[in-house]
Design brief:
The chain has three helices and six strands, in the order E-E-H-E-E-E-E-H-H. It is an alpha+beta fold. The strands form two sheets. It has a four-stranded mixed sheet. Strands 3-6 form a two-stranded antiparallel sheet. The longest helix has 15 residues. It is elongated, with a radius of gyration of 22 Å. The termini are far apart.
């Protein structure tokens, strides 16, 4: 089992990029294996690790189709719909509440 080369923060060689850097350039790893990693030290905690991929082997990001756009819109609409009152809250329902804010914290002076 081979180990990956580890580079210090901001000292990775040219030609390697993280997933976010690839995405910003309009690329994706495209099934290639991780070739190295970069570590950012932190005080009193384990270092942050990011995997690096070769830029020359990266593939372009797949274009967004009309079907993918429609599916994403439906998924986001479902995240805005309150399961208690079935209304569109106008914002993404917090997972900690599980329902819109008026349903989670009803006004004691007003009956629902």
């Amino acid at each position: 089992m081979a180990t990956l080369p580890v580079y210090p923060w901001r000292l990775a060689p040219d030609g390697l990029a993280t997933r976010r850097q690839l995405r910003a350039a309009g690329l994706r790893p495209g099934g290639q294996d991780v070739v190295a990693q970069v570590e950012r030290p932190r005080r009193r905690r384990s270092p942050l690790t990011a995997f690096l991929y070769r830029i020359d082997r990266a593939k372009p990001v797949r274009p967004m189709t009309a079907a993918k756009t429609a599916a994403l819109a439906r998924a986001n609409a479902a995240r805005r719909r309150c399961p208690a009152c079935r209304c569109d809250a106008g914002y993404v329902i917090p997972l900690s509440l599980g329902m819109c804010v008026p349903c989670a914290y009803p006004n004691p002076d007003q009956h629902v």
